[in-house]
Amino acid sequence: MVALTPEILYVFALVLVALVFFATEPVPVDITALGIMVVLLATGPLTEQLARFGLIGGPLYLLGNAETGPAPELGIAGFASTATITVLAMFILSDGVQRTGIIQILGRKIAAFTRDSETRQLSATMGVVAPLSGFINNTAAVAILLPMVTDIAHKGKTSPSKLLIPLSYASMFGGMLTLIGTSTNILASEVARDIATRADAPVGSARLSDGFSMFEFTQLGIVVAIVGFIYLLVVGRYLLPERIKAREDLTEEFQMADYLTEVEVREDSPLIGQTVRDALVETDFDVDLVQLVRGEEVFLEPLGPKAIQAGDIFLVRTDRDTLVELMDVEGFELVPNFEVTEEELELAEADENLVEVVVAPGSDLVGESLTSMNFRQRYDATVLALRRGGELIRKRMDNIVLRVGDTLLVQATADSIERLDLNRDFIVAQEIERHDYREEKIPVAIGIIGGVVGLAALNVLPIVVSALAGALAMVFTGCLKPGEVYDAVQWDVIVLLAGVIPLGTAMQNTGAALYIAEVLVQSADVLPQIAVLGLFYVLTAALTNVISNNASVVLMIPVAFDAAARLGASPYAFVLAVTFAASTAFMTPVGYQTNLFVYGPGGYRFSDYARIGTPLQLVFAVVTTVGIAAIWGI
């Protein structure tokens, strides 16, 4: 049994703190990962100084050893990792495809096919996102398709709640079809290759010395995807709730009838002559002036500079108690026979003025409030309601701290909505008529993706070189403009990858991974090897449903190598089990970014993921374990 050294105990303590931070997110996960890196880098030099003054027994070398001393280059190796660079390039490639508009064209054709059949809608949703997720990042695939699926649901009189969790889950199925389907696959390949090429690599590691190839596990990915499809069509659809009723009107969906009304400015109002901006600044009421009707004209944001006149009619967002006070103090009177409808809110323009907007992962809005980020003035838009999972908030929203997946009901001009759609901080959950797609570049973008996949699959170029070349080709061919390249990258994911990679190195270097492996391998006394393999899948899946999937891979792959060595089993089989488990987190909304994407638009509760995802996770544990044993052996 490996002895519990101070280094191992220190690494365990660091892992425990990291798990708590990843699970509770007091700060974004990428900042936690950066903190892990700094601690790993600082521990060696600081403990050397403490040991020199006799304050501790000896230095702790997490990324080095007593002979060579601290190795800071290992701490920052994540930024130079081929996994990090490959994922960065894949974000650019995905964005190049998205900007051609091909996904939106495909969506319109699917909508015509599905009509009002829920079975067709569910089949089409999964049938499109799964293969697409094999070749562009699955997170990007869900972000692109979410508006299309929401529109298909509403046009077909189906609850969006019936389709959005399947959209997220199917993107995970598809992510396991190829190496480039998820950042987790790419990271797993890199970590496995690094361990397999070490001088002290376990016996049987040679198969992983080059990492995974492009279609290394496609056959198992296809089996898993088919099983997932069958589950969602036969079982899952009946477990999916109708949290949001099928509707034609957004005001009904957000239950705005008690929170929107029209008031007219009386002749004796003290607000006459003031600008809307000044009137809102001076009032203590929880109220938003959403729309101004003056004679035959209807005005939306920006309303701030407009001077208030007698007879002006304002559409206001407030509650009934506040409305009564507002009428008494500010000189308003209620407009009789007003009915809240989406049509009423879109009088200003022929185009759509009312949309749902989802706060995207990595958004600058996360951790901010509508007030702190000056939402109304910055985006010329008014937030009428906020949905967080199954909770609807229609008052006192200004100071609520926003989270990833929050859905905002926004009213704005068509130009403002198009700007929101272009902004990477948001996902507009309805199809918006945009005029900037480069449809003439569709064949070029598809050709570039095909070239990237083909060159890597045929081993002509390493995947990192192929992906970087493809990203450059997207710019040279005009699929992307140079300035769009930086906007395409989800920098929080890049920092997360770079930050957690050294943690895996520290676990391997200190013997912490070997210690965990020995504890797990003790179960082999009562369990056959295939059951231990299944245990690794279950443990990794449980971990992934609580913390980042990339962090799970970094923590579990070193353990998988050492466990396989202790059992005399194939490291390849155990690494595959960890990789599949880390890329399929079904049981919580926080386990995978795509689950968070659909959390607000679907109106889901936390328990919905557990009810639908837990049986699927168990089915996948059996299918993946048996599949690995049947195809590659243990």
Account of the protein in words:
The structure is a single chain. With 634 residues, the chain is α+β, with helices and mostly antiparallel strands. 55% of the residues lie in helices and 8% in strands. The chain has 26 helices and 10 strands. It has helices at residues 6-24, 29-52, 72-75, 77-80, 82-98, 102-114, 118-133, 138-155, 161-175, 183-196, 218-239, 250-253, 276-282, 320-330, 375-379, 414-422, 442-457, 463-476, 482-488, 491-510, 512-521, 529-544, 549-567, 571-582, 593-599, 606-631, and strands at residues 260-265, 288-294, 297-299, 313-317, 332-334, 354-359, 381-388, 391-393, 407-412, 426-428. The strands form 2 sheets. A 5-stranded antiparallel sheet has the order 3-2-4-1-5, covered by helices on one side. A hairpin with a 2-residue loop joins strand 2 (288-294) and strand 3. The chain is globular and about 85 Å long. It starts with 5 loop residues before the first helix and ends with a helix.
List the helices and strands and how they pair.
Elements (H helix, E strand, L loop, with lengths): L5 H19 L4 H24 L19 H4 L1 H4 L1 H17 L3 H13 L3 H16 L4 H18 L5 H15 L7 H14 L21 H22 L10 H4 L6 E6 L10 H7 L5 E7 L2 E3 L13 E5 L2 H11 L1 E3 L19 E6 L15 H5 L1 E8 L2 E3 L13 E6 L1 H9 L3 E3 L13 H16 L5 H14 L5 H7 L2 H20 L1 H10 L7 H16 L4 H19 L3 H12 L10 H7 L6 H26 L3
Antiparallel strand pairs: 1-4, 1-5, 2-3, 2-4, 6-9, 6-10, 7-8, 7-9
Helix pairs in contact: 1-2, 1-20, 2-20, 5-10, 5-18, 5-20, 6-7, 6-8, 7-8, 7-9, 8-9, 8-25, 9-11, 9-25, 10-23, 10-24, 11-26, 17-18, 20-23, 21-23, 22-23, 22-24, 22-26, 23-24, 24-26
